[in-house]
Amino acid sequence: MTLKHQKPGGKASSTPLMGGGEESTIFELSSPGRISATFRETGIPPKDPSRTIPSYYLRNAELEFPEVSERDLVAHFTRLTHRQFSVDLGAYPLGSCTMKYNPKLADTSSMIPQFANIHPLQPVSTIQGWLELMVTLETYFTEITGMSAATLQPAAGAQGELTGLLIMKAFHQQNNDERKNIIIPDSAHGTNPASVTLSGYTPITVRSNSRGLVDIDALRQLVDKDTAGIMLTNPNTIGLFEEEIVEIAKMVHEVGGLLYYDGANLNAIMGIVRPGDMGFDIVHSNLHKTFATPHGGGGPGSGPVAVSARLAEFLPGPRPAITGTDSSGNHTYSMVTPAKSIGRIHSFHGNAIVFVRALAYMMYYGGKGLREVSETAVLNANWLKKRLSKNFPAAHERVCMHEFVCTAAKLKKDSSVRALDVAKGLLEEGFHSPTVYFPLVVEEALMFEPTETESLQTLEAIALAMDKIAEMASTEEGKDGLKSAPRVTPVSRLDEARAARNLISTYDASVSSIDK
Amino acid sequence: MLTFLGIESVDQLFETIPSAIRLSRDSLKLPDSKSEFDVLAELETMAAKNKALGSDFISFAGGGAYDHDIASAVKSLSTRSEFLTAYTPYQPEVAQGVLQALFEYQTLVSRLSGLEISNASLYDGASALVEAINLTVAQSKNDLVWMSQGINPTYRQVVNTFANGTGHSIQEVPIRNGSTSWPIDDQTLPGTIVIGYPNYLGLLEPLEQIINFAQTNDIKLIFAYDPVSMALLTSPGDLGADVAVAEGQSFGVGLNFGGPYVGLFSIREKYVRHLPGRLVGETVDRSGQVGYVTTLRTREQDIRREKASSNVCTNQTLIAITTAISMSWLGKAGLRELANRCYSGTEYLKDLVARIKGVEIYSSLPSVREFAIKTKISSELLVDRMIEEGFLAGVPIIEGFEGSDVYESLLVSVTEKRTRAQIEDFAGALERIVR
Prior knowledge:
Distance between the termini of chain A: 59 Å
Number of strands of chain B: 17
Radius of gyration of chain A: 26 Å
Number of helices of chain B: 13
Oligomer: heterodimer
C-alpha cells in the first residue's frame, strides 16, 4: 500500500503552511486617523462627560488603540489564521485533548438568534427555551455518565474539578467529617493536584504499577479515615482502563471516601461503560473534547459536573428545573438553588452557547452513534499503536483505549533524537504533534490520540511520517534535520528560554526593550 | 483494521473492562441519530420558546452583560475555523496565529487597565476576581478581604463559593447612598480591598480616601472595572491598583445567555511569577525572526501541580481573540466614541426618568453607562409590565442587596445601540406604568 493510492482523506497533512515571514502586529499597522468603526444615527445629543464626572476620575491622555482601516484589520487577522494549524486543516493527534473533527452543525446551531440574543438576567418566563435546552443536556449527560443530576455552570474541566471537590467537601462537612486528603495517581493531569490544593484538601500521590495502572497494594496503604476521596481518570492518561476499578471503589467507599471521575477521557467509553456504574460519585466532562464543541484555540470549554443522587442537593445554583406544566401540558421551567448548594461558580449560567453545540452533537449522533464514536476511537488508537510499535514501542504492550503512550527512549539512546525532535519532525510533515513528555511516568513519552474522525488512510499517512522520522534518526544528516525541524512552518524552532528570561508580553514592552 | 490487530470484533478491544460494570443495555437511552437539518429544526423549536432582544423587546438591561452592536468584520474574523478548531498552542511553530492574536490582546488589556502584565484570559469576570483574590492573599499573607457590596452580586457569590475551598475570609462591605462604607476604623486590617470602578450600580464612588488608606497600610488593591468606560476614566493602574479585573463581553461578544464571555486580568509586573493562567511572550526563532510562545510556564498546573497557585488550563482564547479584533475595529477614536455614546445615552435617559413622578434616581453620585431607579412597584413586576410594552427594562437589584438602601431598585443601562426614539418610548412606557 502506498500513499498515492489512498484518496479517501487525501493527504491529511498541510505542508507547507502558508504565512511564512513575519506578520506585523496590529500596533505597527496603525496609522493616525484611520478607523474601521461606524456608529448608528441615534439622534441622542452628545454630552461632555466632564459635566457630571469630576476631574479626579477623568483620563488625561487618550487611550491608544490601533488605528486601522477595516481592510487592514481583516487582512491582518486573516494572515494570522494562515499561520495557525487547526483540526479543519489536518490531523491533530494531540493526546489527552481529543482533537476530533467538529461537525459544522454546531456552528450553525450556535448562531440561532433566539439562543444568541438573550440577556442572561431575563425573567424566567422569557427563557423557557434555554432552560429546556439546559435540562435536556443535563439529562443526556447524566445518562451518558450513569449519574443522577448535573450542573452546567463550570466553564472548563479544571473549574469542574474544583466544583466537584467542593461538593465532596460540603458532603463530608455535613456529616461533621473533617477529612484531609485526596488521593491522585502519579499519572494524573496537573489540574487534579492544583484543584485539590484550591479545595483546601491535601493531594496524596498513589504510584502506578508496572502495568501502568493504579497500584492497588500501595493504594490500600494510603486509604484511611482521613481520605476524603480519590480522583481518577478512566481510562487513565496512559490510555489504559483501570481494570480494578470495582475494587478501588469498594476500598474508598468502605472508609467513607468519595470517587471523582476526571472525564477528560470519556471519548473512549460512551455507551460501553459508565462512570456511575464503575462506582464514581462525581464526574466532570469536557464538552469541548468529547462533544466536539470545539476547542477555540484554548477555550471556551465547558466542564459540566454530574453527581450521584445523594450529592444532588450540593450542586451549584441556581440551576434549571422543571417546575410545572402549562395549559397544553408542556413542561414549564424555572431556576432553583438546591438546599445545600455549594453556591454559584459562574457569573451567569456557564458557557451557554457551548451547551447548544454539545446538545447538537449528541442529537446528531444519537445513543447508538455515540457508542460507535467510542468504538472507532479505540479501534483507531489500537491500530496506530501497533503500526508504530516497531520504532516507537508502546509504554505498555496491551490493548489501549482511545489513546496510547509510546516512547522515544530507545531512539534517544541510539541516536540522541528526543521526543521533542520527533514532535517537531511531525510538524515538518504537516501533522500536528502528539502530546510529549506527558504523562510524567513514561520516559520520552509521545501520547497519540487519533480520534474516531480520522480515516485509515490518514492513520497510515501519520505512520509513514513516523517511519520516515525513525529512519532519519539513523543517519547523521537525518538527525541534524530532525533537530533543526520544523523549517516549513511560519517560524522555525523558537527560543523558549529567551522568552522566559527576557519577558516581553505586550507590544509596549517590546518597543521599550528595543529602546534599551 | 481488525485483521491487522488480529481480532475478530471491536468488542475484543473492550475486554479489559469488567463485564459486571459494562452497560447491559443495547445502547444509551438517547434519541436515535438525526440529520443535521432535523437537529437544527428541533433546536429552533426550542429556541422559539425564548423571547429575544431585537425581535421581542428592546433591551435596557446591563448588570455585567451589555447589548452592543457587533461589527460584521468582527463576526467574520472571530468565527474563522483556524481560530475555532485549534487548541492551546503547545506547538508554537504551528500556532503563531493564536499566539500573536493573544499577544495583541494582552497589550490592549494592559492599556485598558494601566497595568504592565495581562494574562491570555480567564473564564469570566467572576473567575478573574477569584484568581485576583487568590493572588493578593498569597502576596499579602493576610487572608482577610474587604469586598465592596458594589461589586457585581454574582461575582461576590462566586468569590464566596471558592473561598470555602481556600479558607479566605471574605468580608462584604455594605454600600449606602451608592458608596461603600469602608470600616477604616476597624482594629483588624485586611490584606486585600476589592473596589468596583464604576460599581455595579454604574456609580463612581469616592475613592481617594480608601486608596490612600490601602497604600498607607500596605493593603493590596483589586479593581473590578468596566473596560468600555476606560476610554473616559483614569485607568485602575494609574489610580493605584495592584490587580485589575473585568468582564470583556462588551467588545464584540454576543449576549449568548451569559457565556462564553471572557475575564480580563492584569497585574503589576512584580507579581508576574504568581500570575494565574497562560501568558504569551515574544521571542525569536533560529533565524532570528520574531515569534511568540506561552511563557513562564513553570507557574502553571501541568508543571507545578499541587504547588500551582491556579488550576486554570483551558481558558477563553477564542473570546479573547474576538475582543482583540473588536478593540482593533473600534480603534482609538471609536473606543472614545463608544464610551461617549454609552455615557450620553445613559445621561439622556436619566434626565428623562428623573422628571417622571413616582421614579427616583437611587444615588446622586456621577454615573457611566447605567444607573438604578426606584419606583413603588417591585422591580420584578416592573420588568414584567415593561415586557408588555416591548422593553427588557433592566435588571432587578435583589439578591446580594438584602437590607440595603438599593434593594428592590431596577438597574437600567443604555448602550450605543439605543436611539433617542427608543429611549423616549421607554421613558413614556415607564411613566404609564408607575403613574
